[in-house]
């Protein structure tokens, strides 16, 4: 009788042990599933952050840098909002001087980064302009290649009209290419004031 009771108790205990082991296995599987879900969520969050950083890197700078020269109240380099026009650059620089010839400028022209804006005086030869970096094949970084351009392109320089452009070509053909700014002083009609206007507008190679 006692043996039968003991046998039954062992069966009950064995059954309880099996149930406990089953419960533990179930709980373990649940923890594993949750951990897996958390890992996927973390990966997704990291991916979203990476994409956001990529988008930030592709956003253009909201400002541009402009060099304003000539008949202007405060010639200097200015920082302006992207999308600004020439007239806004002039206003930022304090406006025209009394002898400025604003008719030679396109005040509605759109500005781009690293542009040079030159304002001529009344009666000054040449045409005032806003020159962008790398605008044409004959320009390098917004500058005229003085040893290779023709008469027409020379007249795009501040203070250079048909007469001076012709003199530059003649000197170049007779004496060879210019090597530095001071060489231009040897050209008929070009003095110190003319040379100062050309600073930053020409290259010699």
Automatic annotation (TrEMBL):
Q: Which domain of life is it from?
A: Bacteria
Establish whether keyword Transmembrane is in the entry: yes
Q: Which GO terms describe its cellular component?
A: type II protein secretion system complex
**InterPro entries in the cross-refs:** Competence_ComEA_HhH, Endo/Exo/Phosphatase_dom_1, Hlx-hairpin-Hlx_DNA-bd_motif, RuvA_2-like, Soluble_ligand-bd
Tell me yes or no: is Transmembrane among this UniProt entry's keywords: yes
- A Pfam family it matches: SLBB
Which UniProt keywords are given for this protein, alphabetically ordered? Membrane, Transmembrane, Transmembrane helix
Q: Which GO terms describe its biological process?
A: DNA repair; protein secretion by the type II secretion system
Regions that span the bilayer: 12-28
Give residue ranges for domain Helix-hairpin-helix DNA-binding motif class.
Answer: 152-171, 182-201
GO MF annotation: an example = DNA binding
**What protein am I looking at?**
Helix-hairpin-helix domain-containing protein
Organism, by scientific name, is Halalkalibacter suaedae
């Amino acid at each position: 009788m006692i043996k039968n009771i003991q046998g039954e108790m062992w069966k009950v205990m064995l059954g309880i042990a099996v149930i406990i082991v089953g419960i533990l296995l179930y709980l373990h599987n649940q923890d594993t599933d949750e951990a897996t879900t958390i890992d996927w969520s973390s990966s997704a969050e990291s991916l979203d952050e990476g994409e956001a950083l990529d988008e930030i890197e592709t956003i253009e700078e909201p400002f541009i840098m402009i060099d304003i020269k000539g008949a202007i109240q405060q010639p200097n380099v200015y920082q302006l909002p992207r999308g600004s026009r020439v007239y806004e650059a002039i206003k930022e620089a304090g406006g025209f001087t009394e002898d400025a010839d604003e008719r030679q400028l396109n005040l509605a022209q759109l500005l781009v980064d690293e542009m040079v804006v030159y304002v001529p005086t009344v009666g000054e030869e040449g045409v005032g302009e806003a020159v962008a970096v790398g605008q044409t094949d004959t320009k390098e970084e917004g500058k005229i290649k003085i040893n290779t351009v023709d008469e027409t392109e020379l007249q795009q320089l501040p203070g250079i009209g048909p007469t001076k452009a012709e003199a530059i070509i003649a000197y170049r053909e007779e004496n060879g290419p210019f090597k530095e700014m001071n060489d231009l002083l040897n050209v008929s009609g070009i003095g110190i004031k003319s040379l100062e206007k050309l600073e930053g507008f020409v290259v010699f190679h």
